[in-house]
Amino acid sequence: MRTLCYKHVAPLELWRRIHRPALLIFLLLSVTTVADSIQTRQPRIRRRVDYSRFSHVTHVTTQKLACDSCHKFPTKNWKDVRKGDAAFPDVAEFPEHASCINCHRAQFFARERPAPAICSNCHVGVTPKDTARFIFPSLGDVIDATRKRRDTESEFVVNFPHELHMDAIGQNHVPARGGVVSFVHAGFQKEKPKEESDPKNCVICHQTHQPLGDSSEEYVTKPPKGLGDAFWLKKGTFKTVPVSHAPCSSCHNTEAGIEPVPSKCEVCHKLLPARDVAADFDLKLAANMGITDQTTLARWRRRASSGTFPHEGGMHPTLSCTSCHNIPTMNTAELKTLKVSVKSCGGAEGCHITATSDEGGALNFEMDQRKAKADFQCTKCHLVFGSQPMPPSHVAALAKPVAK
Question: What is the dihedral of CA 223, 227, 229, 231, to 10 degrees?
């Protein structure tokens, strides 16, 4: 048997003979690994974050930050934004820089002109010389000509269960801070008002937005010539909702101690859930009409029943709110509870749903047209829903033919 002898082999040659096989195996494995990596590697796309668009979802849901991590109650300016008896402890200003800089130091000192983009979330001019801030969103009741508002759609919905407030709001006298009387109207009337001048239901929190009043122009914006029977948004279509903490502060304040106290932001302010209820709203149509009012757009975007229903139109102003709305079940954080049943359009006198089509019911007419022509679009009440299949609720709302 032949044996290897390295006695007379030079050291360098000896190293090559011993390590060459291992080196070849290593190189082969390395090439294979790199090739596999090139074939399987997916392109990594880094999305650029727009720091000019503050996201509560990122901070609350992803970062798990509590509200008081940034918002302090009350803010130092609460006595300045409202004067005298109108003032109450409130979150009335954006968080200070210290709340942001720990996580966003790079964005605060970014080399962006005229100023870092992150500044535009709170500041109007976004320049080193102009330090003015927008008026804080919760100050919807404060009119300050010296401060601008930032028109952005809120990421939150207010969790307001109407049932829990019916007794309190329905009282003639609700004690507020220091025993001062706050509410003076009955909030929820079950009976129909006797006269149009009677206080209407829910007026404590809801008033007619952009009412017609004495104006001769019934539309919000000027309609095109030859409009005919086509839809165009009319004044008095929507109702307002509270836009500040002021109505709530009468009962939910540090002195009364009625839960939830104002420092517990998360009890009332809920991040908007995934929209599982479609809205009868056409953004393109609203743009064509020149609708820019934020209150109108906010209400219209959530209209899940009829996109064209006017609260101030026809006989609607004389109706009790409970004629259409099931108040005890309504919760503003649950969109499904805000839908109005189509049966409400029938009424005791058969307003829009009648026993037969000959009696002039709008729903009767629309359904007859849909039966006669499959592509007929129901536009009497709807904007986008009119082209969809007729829902079972509409069919069930019509009186069944009497068997002969």
Answer: -40
